[in-house]
Amino acid sequence: MKTKEIIFIVEESLDGGYEAKAVGESIFTEAETIDDLKKNITEAVRCHFDEANLPSIVNLRFQREEIITI
After folding, report:
1. Global pTM?
2. Nearest to 58 by CA among 70, 40, 50, 69
3. Counting beta carbons within 10 angstroms of the beta carbon of residue 31, is it exposed (0 to 12), middle (13 to 18) or buried (19 or more)?
4. Regarding beta strands 18-22 and 5-12, do their DSSP bridges make them parallel or antiparallel, or are they unpaired?
5. Which has the closest alpha carbon to 28: 51, 14, 15, 11?
6. Higher pLDDT, 2 or 38
């Protein structure tokens, strides 16, 4: 059955750059810039799925953690 959408959670890396993890699939990639991350995600998704099951949409959800002191 063809997956229509795959979701990635994107976070800033502690070492700089960005990390992306797929929800429900074993796909992980990283890059220094958002543009490079998008290219890496596209490549990783194409490698993970065969052509018949390739998702038509990749949804990036950016997660940011911020701490404030009171």
Report:
1. 0.87
2. 40
3. middle
4. antiparallel
5. 11
6. 38
Degrees to nearest 5, angle at CA 31 with 25 and 35: 100
Output the furthest CA–CA distance in the chain (Å, rounded). Answer: 53
> 27: how many CB neighbours lie within 10 A of its CB?
17
Cα torsion 37, 41, 43, 46 to 10°: value is -170
Give 6 or 2, the one with higher predicted confidence. 6
Contact yes or no for 29/11 (Cβ under 8 A): no
